[in-house]
Amino acid sequence: MSERTRKLLGFWDLMSISLGQIIGTGVVVLTGISISMTGYGAPWAFVFALLIVA
Fold first, then answer.
1. What distance in Å separates the CA atoms of residue 43 and residue 34, rounded to the nearest whole number?
2. What whole-number distance in Å separates Cα of residue 19 and Cα of residue 36?
3. What is the span of the domain harbouring residue 32?
4. Close Cβ partners of 23 (under 8 Å, ≥ 6 residues apart)
5. Domain tally for the chain?
6. According to the model, what pLDDT value does residue 21 have?
7. How far is Cα 34 from Cα 26, in angstroms, rounded to an integer?
8. What is the radius of gyration, based on Cα positions, of the chain?
9. What is the pLDDT of residues 1-39, one digit of tens each?
C-alpha cells in the first residue's frame, strides 16, 4: 500500500469497506441458495424485504 493511500484511508474506512464486502458476498451467496431451494420468487422476496427495511 502506498503512503498516499495510507493517508487517505483510515482504520474505520477500511473496516467499513471490509464489512460491506462481507455483507455483499452473503447476499449474493444466499440469493443463489434460496433460489435453488424455493424457486425464482426468492429475489422478489429480497426486494420486498429491502422496501420494508428502507
1. 8
2. 26
3. 3-53
4. none
5. 1
6. 93
7. 12
8. 17
9. 677 666 788 889 999 999 999 988 888 888 888 888 888
